[in-house]
Amino acid sequence: MAKFLGIFGSDFPSTAKYEAEQMRLASDYKRFCEYEESIVYKRFSELDTLIHSGDFEKRVQKLKNEKFSDTEAYRHYNSYLALKKSADIKTYLRFVQSGKEAKLESLLESPVYLEFKELEMITHSSAFVAAQKKKDFKNSDEAIQLKRLHDLEKNDDVKFVKHTLMSAEYKSYSTVKNSARLIEFQKLDQYVSSQEFIDFKSFLEDKKRFFKSQEYSLLQEYSEIEKSDDHKWFLQTKKKYPFKDIERLQLSFDDDFDAQKLDASRWITGYYWGKALLNDSYVLAGEKQNFSDKNILSRDSVVSLVTRQEASKGKVWDAERGFRPVDFNYSAAIINTGHSFRQLYGRFEAKVRLKNVPGMYHAFWMLGEKSVPQITVFKTNPKSSKHFDCGSFTDETGKGNVRKTATLVKGAAFDKDYHIFTLDWTPGKLVWKINGEVVNQQTNNVPDQPMYIALSSHVTDDKIGSLPVEMDIDWVRCYSFKK
Q1: Helix, strand or coil for residue 274?
Q2: Averaged confidence pLDDT in the chain
Q3: Which of 24, 204, 351, 406 could lock onto 2 through a cystine, CB 3.0 to 4.6 A?
Q4: In the prediction, which pLDDT does 202 show?
């Protein structure tokens, strides 16, 4: 079955612009993936989760709005100040801080004061009073004790103790000492003197505390990443996400032809079975060219398959008579990956310039283990440089009933510029594209066997146009589709 598909207008999308766009897209995808896996983006994601958590937002609001006067610590501090300003606590503190407490406690245990207290107790006893009434008192031991008492009463330490114990200050001090109020004050004094309280009060009274906080630092770090050019580009690109096609591609074969000669580990230069069985080239019955390695030129990262008018000897395969020697008047070239690369499904593409003349054609095709199934990515039309065929050959019964599906595509001068020919092959569907624009789709007669790729030139008629002509191949790339 054959059909016609035309692209109306003189050209397909510009090859240079399409290739540049594809290169930019590949570069953007690489950049996108690298940023998505970067330490910076992982850190941003961590910060994003943290910053938008309820707990973090509460901490930020607390840092911004909390006042010292709203805290339990402030209430303790106020209680402390109130007690510290009260008259009895002030008196107590003044008495202690003046040193009177320590001096009094020391003197109350001193020998002088203890002697004084003992003599005072003796002189106030009934026995001493009775002795004092006797006529010989002046010469008695009691008189000596009384004199000693009077002498001690003049002692500065004894006078200090007596005066202090009789003072209103001491009475107030004594009332406060060991009281619940003093115990509470001492607890609060210890609390407000602690480094923890001092730091807490200083922190909450600092009007710039939020800007010194870890939360502010985290918000700043988050904001710096969010405002960065890389992150803004990433978010904008993620929203559009132009990578749905490219992300499913896994490069499985490519050749940019940068070497000085064709890479023999990738390409063979004849029909596969000729090289595999005979280590020689042959052509099929009806073909008028011989394949020659001399017609494969490598220059400026381009491989050219040249078709020439020249005499040569070669072999032809005839299904009835087998291989037979033939004299040829034309030479051409073929390259294929039958020994190195085969694939079932994926994307297969080549950037090619086709210089075509009547009586011959160039082809980009795919073949399995046998002559069918076969896929034609393109086959130029011997009668027009603006036409090419694409399609497939299958033998679903395996009995030689070959079914052909072909489409004629027209719309560009393929001999004037490079074009990128693409085949997307999936189960049950074939899609052909030129410079990214779909030119044909096929859902029947779709092969389902691994195939290798081949590019070749063929002479079909002795009435051929001016030679030599070339098919120039800039690169070939194949991809598998990721699941």
Answers
A1: helix
A2: 91
A3: 406
A4: 93
With CA atoms as reference, report the closest residue to 43 among 212, 223, 214, 215.
223
Where exactly are the structural domains of the chain? Answer: 2-16+251-481, 38-66+213-243, 71-212
Task: Classify burial at 193, counting beta carbons within 10 Å of its beta carbon; exposed 0-12, middle 13-18, buried 19 or more.
Answer: exposed
Minimal CA–CA distance to 254: which of 242, 263, 246? 263
446's CB contacts (< 8 A; 6+ apart) are 392, 394, 425, 427, 428, 429, 430
For the chain, the maximum distance between any two Cα atoms, rounded to a whole number of angstroms, is 178
Please provide the CATH number assigned to the domain covering 2-16+251-481: 2.60.120.200
Cis preceding linkage at 13, omega within 30: no
Beta-bridged to residue 409, according to DSSP, are 5, 388
Write out pLDDT tens, residues 249-273: 999 999 999 999 999 999 999 999 8
Decide: 464 and 309 in contact? Cβ < 8 Å: yes
State the sign of the Cα–Cα–Cα–Cα dihedral 129, 133, 134, 138.
Answer: positive
Predicted confidence at residue 423, as pLDDT, reads 98
Going along 38-132, which residue ranges are E strands? none
